[in-house]
């Protein structure tokens, strides 16, 4: 499905401006375009107990679920951070993308210069562990 990549990046950048990062100072934004035209966004939110920090990607994906949407509704996902190259999401977020997005959903990785690399969810996490692996008894 076609989508407005510039608008998707703008939404992720706007979310990034809300990032709560007193410890790392590394702000990240994420946005999801849904089939009904809605955008859902997320930023990273840190905590003095470092293990409780949540990445922008998971914040956005969990909000998508909380608002009643599913992977079938997601058209594209975008992540932006202040990196030299388009941002590379962490392993935990790749696993959550595998769970909550479809394998062929485009993920727009970008940076503040708007250098873009588009990869699918499956390309970001090849040979993944998934819910299918839990169906061993069938
Ligand atoms: O793709 C990424 C990489 C890092 N972070 C956050 C986690 C932490 O708050 C800070 C530094 O790792 O950036 C994200 O939100 N997304
Ligand atoms: Zn992450």
UniProtKB/TrEMBL annotation:
One of its GO terms (molecular function) is cytidine deaminase activity. Its cofactor is Zn(2+). CDD domains: cytidine_deaminase (cd01283). InterPro entries: APOBEC/CMP_deaminase_Zn-bd (IPR016192), CMP_dCMP_dom (IPR002125), Cyt/Deoxycyt_deaminase (IPR050202), Cyt_deam_tetra (IPR006262), Cytidine_deaminase-like (IPR016193). Residues 3-132 form the CMP/dCMP-type deaminase domain. One of its GO terms (cellular component) is cytosol. Pfam families: dCMP_cyt_deam_1 (PF00383). Keywords: Hydrolase, Metal-binding, Zinc. Substrate binds at residues 44-50. Its EC number is 3.5.4.5. It catalyses: cytidine + H2O + H(+) = uridine + NH4(+); 2'-deoxycytidine + H2O + H(+) = 2'-deoxyuridine + NH4(+). This enzyme scavenges exogenous and endogenous cytidine and 2'-deoxycytidine for UMP synthesis. Belongs to the cytidine and deoxycytidylate deaminase family. This is Cytidine deaminase. The lineage of its organism: Bacteria, Bacillati, Mycoplasmatota, Mollicutes, Anaeroplasmatales.
């Amino acid at each position: 499905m076609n989508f407005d990549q510039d608008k998707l990046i703008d939404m992720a950048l706007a979310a990034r401006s809300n990032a709560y990062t007193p410890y790392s100072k590394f702000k990240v934004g994420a946005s999801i375009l849904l089939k009904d035209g809605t955008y859902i966004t997320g930023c990273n939110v840190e905590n003095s107990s470092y293990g409780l920090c949540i990445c922008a990607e998971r914040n956005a994906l969990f909000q998508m679920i909380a608002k009643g949407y599913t992977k079938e509704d997601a058209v594209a996902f975008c992540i932006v951070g202040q990196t030299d190259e388009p941002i590379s999401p962490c392993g935990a977020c790749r696993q959550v993308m595998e769970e909550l997005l479809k394998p062929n959903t485009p993920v727009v990785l970008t940076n503040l210069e708007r250098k873009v690399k588009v990869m699918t969810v499956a390309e970001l996490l090849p040979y993944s562990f998934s819910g299918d692996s839990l169906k061993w008894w069938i």
